[in-house]
Design goal:
about 160 residues; alpha+beta; disordered N terminus
């Protein structure tokens, strides 16, 4: 998909091929983090599924993913795990800033429209104070239509409402 004139990504936004090459050594760890989050929800909270709504489920899965990511990536060469208020960032080298998110059917992040979220998804991939430079990507999961299992795990980069 081409970009309109004047809408090209900033210089620090990686191509898909560049991002895939950088993420290749971390692919299994990222997969484990996402799967761990979902498995913890399915197993540890099984008796509560009937009272937990989608927002609670997403929060549980996210918190479990982040806890796993901290275990998986703390001390890894070239990786910085940084907790932020109500979030975290995983920096892979100087090229990638990564967050974990639930993804919708269109591959876009499912997010509450907060000011911080709007800044994260700004058209120019703007950096917030305290963020290191790098292409912002989201490692995420899409659930099946029944919302009972992970259908797909992806790493996506959003630019101007496109994945």
């Amino acid at each position: 998909m081409g970009y309109r004139a004047g809408s090209e990504p900033p210089d620090h936004v990686l191509t898909a091929e560049e991002a895939e090459e950088i993420l290749k050594p971390y692919k299994e760890r990222l997969d484990r983090c996402i799967q761990n989050g979902w498995d913890a929800y399915m197993n540890d909270y099984a008796l509560k599924h009937h009272i937990l709504g989608a927002r609670a489920r997403a929060a549980i899965v996210f918190d479990e993913i982040v806890a796993c990511a901290e275990r998986e990536f703390t001390g890894a060469d070239g990786v910085i795990f940084r907790r932020l208020p109500n979030s975290f960032m995983l920096y892979i080298g100087e090229a990638i800033s990564l967050r974990f998110k639930k993804l919708g059917k269109n591959g876009r992040c499912s997010s509450i429209g907060t000011r911080q979220q709007a800044l994260f998804q700004a058209q120019a991939q703007l950096r917030l104070p305290g963020m290191l430079r790098g292409t912002l990507v989201h490692a995420g999961y899409r659930l099946n239509d029944l919302q009972r299992e992970i259908q797909e795990k992806l790493v996506v980069c959003q630019f101007q409402n496109r994945v």
